[in-house]
Structure formats: structure tokens, C-alpha cells
Design goal:
two-stranded antiparallel ribbon; 498 residues; mainly alpha; globular; Growth Hormone, Chain: A
Length: 498
């Protein structure tokens, strides 16, 4: 049993903490994994219709081929936590970069759909690992006063990667005269879309080798002197030796970590782990990725050409990047929970408007759905309003919370479980959307609307507020109501964890 050492009371006369360039630099370096995460998961957006045509796939199989990487992400996330606990955060980043590189080249040079799915699985394992290791690493190196905005760099990198993939997809398709057309070396444009991920994969791998190891991982391995040096040099910790002792009290040295550490005799898993799983599932079941991954297809339904749809998708991704800066500016001021609540309301109302718009859609003789007039613009506008709210709230805040809400000794493992749940939910949404689209877009977006408002209730009742709290003060069993009634500046009570 470990007893958490409470944080020292806040001295009102103490100088305000400052954000060092070094900790920003290493946080950005870790977030490059998020860039590849966004690029690799979104690159299929521009290739999906050409891939469907070239391999003669129906809608159902197209959904599976598109989403197979997401299912692999769950496995990558699941095992990344255990690997990170055993071998360190940096090694997971390097392994991920190698897998990204292999996947990019293999996907671009695939011989058939089954071949492509295999390479996408490799990429999915890399994405899943990157989705775990970046938020965990950033949370563990960031000072508590700036942890929210530094943690949000992960989401900023994800959406920047998504934007880069859309721009590169558009450039390849435009240069070739269509995604299915041959571009260079006798290779179709959609294949170059996948190969393009090789460059950021190489950059990510090289950058990872230059990052310092997480001080909390080093403490768990008994390397306390090195951990204290990193805390002093990169995080600006005024008392690195004291912080190391605090970390040791909540983490222990040399103890083996396993999924068994997450169990609870009454609930199966510790309550905080269930909350992490709930956050992940509600983030994905909002239907966000149905818009991100299939935006070109969706906008063509509204009446735009492939070229126009690419441009509108680019605008959508620019909006997503811009709104992430809103989260970066607000998250350490208003807190995580307030942003989630505001986001749920805005996202739910936006989805309801999109559903209402598609109630006025018509089908042509071939059975293709289309929207015209004011309802086409209503769907387009509110889809982007949804993106605005998601990008400023649930998108970044979920990753920040997953990186910081768990106690030190279970953080990487619990984050892996939460991220794995997120990828399974992501797979479910992405794989079912083409079929649901064929069934009823009104019904599909209505389902997403209901789920968002259920997520609002979940957030209000269970999600803890972690703003301003040290990682050493995080609890296995947060009180009902999300623990946001506690005084942030008061010392946290000692915690007994099994």
C-alpha cells in the first residue's frame, strides 16, 4: 500500500510559475505522435472513394476497410501502456515511428484490398501507441499550472495532422486530375496519399530520440537522481528532490505494473478507470469522426463536386485547428469540466440541426441522397459549428483528462485502457456510418444527438475537475459529482491506494 504525500499549501507570496521554453519544446516533440495519429487516421478521407472504385468494394466492406486501422489502434493502445511501464515512454515513441513508416510505404504500394488492410493494421498499432504515450508523457513532464494547455498540444497536433492530410490529399488528387488517376512513377494519386506519411514518421522517430525520459518513469525504476535533474532542467521544479520523494510515495520503485492494478473488488475496475472509459466512448459516439473521415462523401451528398468537397473539408480542418487554440487558452483558466459541459450543449444542438436538414433530402433515380437550397447550407454550416464546439472542448479536453486524471502508479496502464476503449468506439462509428448513411442520415444524426446529451449528464455527475491539481494528488476513487467542489488551493488529503 502506498500513501500519497499531500501537496504543500500554496504560498500566496510565492512567485507565479513560469512556462519554460524547454518544457514546451519536449511537449511539442512528444505531440508529433499526435500529428501522425491525425495524419494517418485521416488520410483515408481523400482515398476512400478511389480505393472503393479500384477494388470494387460495396459500402459495407468500404466501411470495414476504412475502419480496420482503428480497431488495430485499440490493440496498439492496450499494449502501449504495458510496454511504456516496462521499457519507458521514449522507446514506445520510437517503435511507433518505425511502424508508421512501414505502414505508409506498405499501404501506398499494396497489391489489393487485403494487402492494404494488413498495412493499415500496422499503422493502427502505431496510432494506438502514439495516442497513449503522448498525453501520458506530456502530463508527466508538465508543471501543474500549465498541464492543461501543454496537454492540449496533443489535440492540436492531431488536428494539424488531419489538416495536413487533407491538404496533401487535395494536392495529389488535383495534380493527377482525380484520386484514381496516375500521378508519378505509374502510381495512382490515392496511393501517394498514404506514402506521404513516411516523411513525418521519420521526423517523429528522430525527434523522439532527443527527448528526455519521463521523470515519473525514472523514479519507478529507481533513477531518482536523473529524474530530479530532468525536473529541474525542463519543468522548472523549485525543489526537484522533494518532488521526487512525492512521486516515490505515490508510485513506488521497481514494482511490476499490470492490468490487475486497475481492478476493484466491487466495480470490476477502479471507478476512475470507468470514468476514463466513459469519457472516451462519449467522445467518439458523438459522431465526430463520421464527419472527419467521411466529410468528402458527406459534402458531395450536399451537392458539391469532389474538388469542392476537398476545399470544404480543408476549411473544416482549419476550423478544427483554430478552435483548439480556444481550448489551449481556456483550459487552465475555466477548467476541464466547464469546457465539456459547454461543448456537449453546442455539439448536441448542432447535430440536431444537421439531422433536421437531412429530413428534407431527396433521392435520385440511382438512390443517391442529395440536399439543395437552404437545407444544404444549414447542414454545411451546422456541421462546422459542431466541429467548432468539438475542437474547443471534447476533442482536446478528453486527451488532457486521460493524461492527468489517473494516479501515478496506474497512469500509463489506465490511459491505455481508456484509449483502447476510445479506439473501439471510433471503429464502431467509422465502420457503421456508410451503412447508417444508406439507411437514414436523419436517424444517424439523431442517434448522435441523443448520445451527446447523455454524455452531458455523465460529465456533470462523474467527471472530476483536475485543474490546478498535482499528479501526485489524483485519486483512485473520486467522490460523486466529479470532485469539483473541492478547494483547488487547499492541500489534498492523504490517499491510501491498494
Amino acid at each position: 500500500m502506498h500513501v500519497a504525500t499531500p501537496s504543500a499549501p500554496v504560498d500566496p507570496n510565492a512567485p507565479k510559475p513560469r512556462l519554460s521554453r524547454r518544457v514546451i519544446a519536449i511537449s511539442l516533440g512528444a505531440a508529433l505522435g499526435g500529428f501522425l495519429f491525425g495524419f494517418d487516421s485521416s488520410v483515408v478521407n481523400g482515398a476512400v472513394e478511389a480505393m472503393q472504385h479500384d477494388f470494387a468494394l460495396d459500402d459495407a466492406f468500404t466501411g470495414i476497410a476504412t475502419a480496420i486501422a482503428l480497431l488495430a489502434c485499440a490493440f496498439g493502445a492496450w499494449f502501449a501502456g504495458q510496454i511504456a511501464e516496462k521499457f519507458g515512454r521514449i522507446r514506445v515513441m520510437v517503435i511507433s515511428s518505425i511502424a508508421f513508416l512501414i505502414s505508409a510505404i506498405g499501404s501506398g504500394l499494396c497489391m489489393g484490398v487485403w494487402d492494404l488492410m494488413g498495412w493499415r493494421i500496422v499503422g493502427g498499432l502505431a496510432i494506438g501507441a502514439a495516442s497513449v504515450i503522448a498525453p501520458a508523457y506530456i502530463a508527466e513532464v508538465a508543471p501543474s499550472a500549465f498541464r492543461g494547455r501543454l496537454g492540449s498540444l496533443q489535440q492540436l497536433a492531431i488536428v494539424a495532422g488531419m489538416l495536413a492530410s487533407v491538404v496533401s490529399d487535395q494536392a495529389f488528387a488535383g495534380s493527377a486530375g482525380g484520386a484514381s488517376e496516375v500521378l508519378w512513377l505509374g502510381i495512382e494519386a490515392w496511393r501517394w496519399m498514404f506514402i506521404a506519411a513516411a516523411l513525418p514518421a521519420l521526423i517523429y522517430g528522430g525527434t523522439s530520440l532527443m527527448l528526455p525520459e519521463s521523470p515519473r518513469y525514472l523514479v519507478s525504476r529507481g533513477q531518482t537522481r536523473k529524474a530530479a535533474q530532468i525536473l529541474a532542467d525542463f519543468t522548472g521544479e523549485a525543489d526537484p528532490a522533494g518532488k521526487v520523494q512525492q512521486i516515490r510515495a505515490t508510485m513506488g520503485e521497481g514494482e511490476k505494473r499490470s492490468l490487475r492494478d486497475l481492478t476493484h473488488p466491487r466495480y470490476g475496475l477502479k471507478p476512475i478507470v470507468w470514468i476514463g472509459i466513459g469519457l472516451s466512448v462519449f467522445q467518439q459516439f458523438s459522431g465526430a469522426n463520421a464527419i472527419f473521415y467521411y466529410s468528402v462523401m458527406l459534402f458531395k451528398t450536399v451537392g458539391f463536386t469532389e474538388s469542392q468537397s476537398f476545399w470544404i473539408t480543408t476549411i473544416t480542418n482549419v476550423t478544427l485547428v483554430a478552435t483548439t487554440f480556444i481550448a489551449i487558452g481556456l483550459i487552465d483558466k475555466v477548467g476541464r469540466k466547464a469546457l465539456l459541459v459547454a461543448g456537449s450543449i453546442g455539439m448536441g444542438l448542432s447535430l440536431a440541426a444537421v439531422a433536421m436538414s437531412f429530413a428534407h433530402a431527396t433521392r435520385d433515380a440511382a438512390g443517391d441522397l442529395s440536399l439543395t437550397g437552404i437545407w444544404a447550407w444549414t447542414a454545411l454550416i451546422f456541421a462546422n459549428v459542431f466541429v467548432l464546439f468539438y475542437g474547443a472542448t471534447w476533442g482536446p479536453v478528453t486527451w488532457v483528462l486521460l493524461g492527468e486524471m489517473f494516479p501515478n502508479r496506474i497512469r500509463a496502464t489506465a490511459l491505455a485502457v481508456g484509449a483502447a476503449a476510445q479506439w473501439v468506439a471510433n471503429f464502431a462509428v467509422t465502420a457503421t456510418f456508410p451503412a447508417l448513411k444508406g439507411w437514414s442520415l436523419v436517424g444517424t444524426y439523431s442517434i448522435y444527438t441523443v448520445i451527446v446529451f447523455v454524455g452531458l449528464v455523465f460529465c456533470l455527475k462523474y467527471v472530476p475537475e483536475t485543474k490546478g491539481r498535482e499528479l501526485e494528488d489524483m485519486d483512485d476513487d473520486p467522490p460523486a459529482g466529479g470532485a469539483d467542489s473541492a478547494d483547488e488551493d487547499a492541500p489534498a488529503p492523504a490517499l491510501a491506494t491498494a
